[in-house]
Q: What sequence folds into this?
């Protein structure tokens, strides 16, 4: 099973960048829905068994995600001022989410670097083979963890499945940004210690990181709007689909009028 998974991962590594990004993008959405569903199941199980212990992982994820956002938001508020509420929230989302992208890129790249150092210190061929096998395995595990992204899915466990409409507009761009970051991290690791020989320059990797930031920035600008529409629709009993269609139609017309 492990060998087959690594072989599939090698095929993924041999793909060109656009194909990698597209596959990773869909995997990120699947991972989000999976972790979201796990969170919902934990809450359901907790309510049946009357056990707080079962729901602790989901609650911890919510606490960590909220604390990270609040820390960034507080720092930005002191710079832009509390009067600029939209800018405050938008920049907080952008920096918070892009920090997550940088962390996963660093983690993937660091794995390649550390394993390369271990290979240089290895004294026998058997030891080198063992290090390289573990490197492939751990890179695959990190990749899977990145695309499942349990923290993002568990943060929203109090939402209903129908409420996920609110995630779609900014999520379209956010998961593209995150997928590009994961691909960049994998490419960095594979460049440092190749599993599949590929020629990719650090300039192209820098372009990937820039594209990730652009998509995350677009998502960050849309996210406060999405949650405002969501809150408004819930407060006034309006259909979410109708609220989002009307909201984005008016936003689009407003932007057109500004040209």
A:
């Amino acid at each position: 099973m492990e060998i087959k998974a690594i072989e599939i991962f090698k095929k993924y590594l041999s793909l060109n960048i656009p194909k990698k990004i597209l596959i990773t993008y869909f995997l990120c959405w699947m991972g989000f829905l999976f972790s979201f569903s796990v969170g919902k199941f934990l809450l359901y199980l907790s309510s049946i068994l009357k056990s707080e212990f079962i729901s602790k992982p989901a609650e911890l994820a919510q606490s960590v995600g909220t604390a990270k956002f609040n820390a960034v938001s507080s720092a930005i508020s002191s710079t832009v001022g509390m009067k600029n509420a939209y800018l405050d929230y938008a920049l907080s989302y952008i920096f918070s989410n892009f920090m997550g992208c940088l962390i996963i890129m660093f983690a993937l790249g660091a794995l390649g670097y550390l394993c390369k150092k271990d290979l240089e210190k290895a004294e026998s061929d058997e030891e080198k083979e063992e290090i390289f096998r573990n490197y492939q395995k751990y890179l695959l595990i990190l990749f899977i963890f990145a695309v499942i992204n349990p923290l993002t899915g568990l943060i929203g466990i109090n939402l209903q499945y129908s409420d996920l409409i609110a995630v779609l507009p900014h999520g379209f761009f956010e998961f593209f940004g995150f997928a590009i970051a994961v691909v960049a991290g994998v490419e960095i690791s594979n460049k440092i210690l190749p599993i599949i020989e590929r020629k990719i320059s650090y300039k192209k990797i820098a372009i990937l990181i820039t594209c990730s930031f652009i998509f995350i920035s677009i998502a960050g600008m849309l996210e406060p709007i999405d949650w405002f529409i969501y809150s408004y629709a819930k407060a006034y009993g309006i259909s979410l689909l109708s609220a989002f269609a009307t909201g984005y139609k008016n936003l689009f017309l407003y932007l057109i009028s500004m040209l």
About this structure: Confidence is low (pLDDT under 50) at residues 64-73. The chain is about 85% helix and 0% strand. Residues 2-258 form one domain.
